[in-house]
UniProtKB/TrEMBL annotation:
Signal peptide: none annotated. It comes from Prunus yedoensis var. nudiflora. CDD domains: START_ArGLABRA2_like (cd08875). Belongs to the HD-ZIP homeobox family. Class IV subfamily. Coiled coil: none annotated. InterPro entries: HD-Zip_IV, HD-Zip_IV_C, START-like_dom_sf, START_lipid-bd_dom. It comes from the Eukaryota. GO terms for molecular function: DNA binding; lipid binding. This is START domain-containing protein. It is found in: Nucleus. One of its GO terms (cellular component) is nucleus. Residues 47-275 form the START domain. Keywords: Coiled coil, DNA-binding, Homeobox, Nucleus, Transcription, Transcription regulation. Its main location: nucleus.
Length: 524
């Protein structure tokens, strides 16, 4: 059996490697067969791309700094509205949209974040760091080719060709795939800028991707005491036909994929990073984890849990999940995957089930209800109605809702398990994500050991405003996504039974009903 299993693992690894190699070859061929968008003839790829990148950088800087009439203030004074007609007048060489189904989405947002400019530039230019920091928005990213690494020691002049897939944490919103160049430059006034622009125009008759990035990116200005001012511009032409009606208003508001969401995520992640490096932890509070190495390990484990959760929720086609059911609107979308050689997940067949629905309750209220261990037994079927206690926590942001905690269920049948939970919130999205973790493994993490070998399967909630007059006051309704990942058979080669799919679907349905019932008094 052991030999059989090893053979099976090797075959899987070989297949995955072949797929990656094939992907790389395909993209290299695309780069090789690029054609000039002006004359249609062959092109020296490095030169089209440099031209595109330099023009994109110029456009980004103008877009970031211009006021009216390109950016108009809305009637309520809270939001900035993009004037597309003025854009076409200002930038006359703009490429036309691929077809009538594509519409323009553009937004701009600024914030001061707790991170210095060089660290921010490194996060944006290192694809692994970038996709980790923005795991709620980036479902997959890959650098296909590095055309320039920039000046030695920093990223000034760095140029790379990338492919990425952007997501909203819900099975009802299709992901957006883009193939683009990313260019980084330090300007004479000391400001850094990182810009993206789609490269689809380089190919003759390309099948248009669902999302074409017009010059998008950010300007980073150094501030005193290690802070930076970030101005973000997000500008795309996108085919929105696949978005479910429930999410249309949110997507149109710019809070789903727009600059506001990128900046809010960056701000929160900068706080999280600062807290993981903090050494001045007050020791008086009960349950606060003060051991520096233990804090780092636990935060790293929680980060992996969040990434894994986001990857199992969105309507992405590229994760190693196979969709089984739930293509319809009100269904639970069920996917399956076999875990063979991933030490961070239990081996066997895993089901991931997710569903999204609207609640006429403000996002903040839902977030507080779901993250509070005292109300957990109202919705968590596995707590068997028992009391859930917080054993320890790490605060990781200004908002008290941003924290990683260890919970224990008092009358659970599994006394050897703890619950690791991360809750995080910003103006555009909130998450409560948790996973049962073996108590022995958790003790190893708390002394600062490597958390990569701790097996976990995350479940949880993504809470988004419904797009109806949300504002910062937290009024309006919410769009709630509930998702579970559950091990249904610890043998990776076992056959998947319909009963286990039914069980997971019922578990989700039951949890949804409990949440609706518990919050029904708020809606009356």
């Amino acid at each position: 059996m052991k030999t059989q299993l090893e053979l099976h693992e090797n075959t899987q690894l070989r297949n995955e490697n072949e797929k990656l190699r094939a992907d790389n070859m395909r993209y290299r061929e695309l780069l090789g067969s690029a054609s000039c968008p002006n004359c249609g003839g062959p092109t020296a790829i490095g030169e089209m791309i440099i031209e595109i990148a330099v023009a994109a950088m110029e456009e980004l800087i103008r877009m970031a700094k211009m006021g009216e009439p390109l950016w108009m203030t809305s009637l309520d004074g809270n939001t900035t509205v993009f004037n597309e007609d003025e854009y076409i007048r200002t930038f006359p060489h703009v490429a036309t949209k691929p077809n009538n189904h594509f519409k323009c989405e553009a937004s701009r947002e600024s914030a001061i974040v707790v991170m210095n400019h060089s660290n921010l530039v490194e996060i944006l230019m290192d694809v692994n760091q970038w996709s980790t920091v923005f795991s709620g928005i980036v479902s997959r990213a890959m650098t296909l080719e590095v055309l320039s690494t920039g000046v030695a020691g920093n990223y000034n002049g760095a140029l790379q060709v990338m492919i990425a897939e952007f997501q909203v944490p819900s099975p009802l919103v299709p992901t957006r795939e883009s193939y683009y160049v990313r260019y980084c430059k330090q300007h004479t006034d000391g400001t850094w800028a990182v810009v993206d622009e789609s490269l689809d125009t380089l190919r003759l008759n390309p099948a248009p991707r669902s999302c074409q990035r017009r010059p998008s990116g950010c300007l980073i200005q150094e501030m005193p005491n290690g802070y930076s001012r970030v101005t973000w511009v997000e500008h795309v032409d996108v085919d929105e036909r696949g978005v479910h009606n429930l999410y249309k208003q949110l997507v149109n508001s710019g809070n789903a994929f727009g600059a506001r969401r990128w900046v809010a995520t960056l701000d929160r992640q900068c706080e999280r990073l600062a807290s993981s490096l903090a050494s001045n932890i007050p020791t008086g509070d009960v349950g606060v984890i003060t051991n520096q190495e233990g804090r780092k390990s636990l935060l790293k484990l929680a980060e992996r849990m969040v990434i894994s959760f986001c990857a199992g929720v969105s309507a992405s086609t590229t994760h190693t999940w196979t969709t089984l059911s739930g293509i319809g609107a009100d269904d639970v979308r069920v996917m399956t995957r076999n875990n063979v050689d991933d030490p961070g997940r239990p081996p066997g067949i895993v089901l991931s089930a997710a569903t999204s629905f609207r609640l006429p309750v403000p996002p903040k209220r839902i977030f507080e209800f779901l993250r509070d261990e005292n109300s957990r037994n109202e919705w968590d079927i596995f707590s068997n109605g028992g009391i859930v206690q917080e054993m320890a926590h790490i605060a990781n942001g200004r908002d008290t809702g941003n924290c990683v905690s260890l919970l224990r269920s008092a009358n659970s049948s599994q006394s050897n398990m703890l619950i690791l939970q991360e809750s995080c919130t910003d103006k555009t999205a909130s998450f409560v994500i948790y996973a049962p973790v073996d108590i022995v493994a958790m003790n190893v993490v708390l002394i600062g050991s490597d958390p990569d070998y701790v097996a976990l399967l995350p479940s949880g909630f993504a809470i988004l405003p419904d797009g109806g007059g949300m504002g910062d006051s937290g009024s309006g309704g919410s769009l709630l996504t509930v998702a579970f990942q559950i091990l249904v058979d610890s043998c990776p080669t076992a056959k998947l039974s319909l009963r286990s799919v039914e069980t997971v679907t019922n578990l989700i349905a039951c949890t949804v009903e409990r949440i609706k019932a518990a919050l029904s008094s708020d809606t009356a």
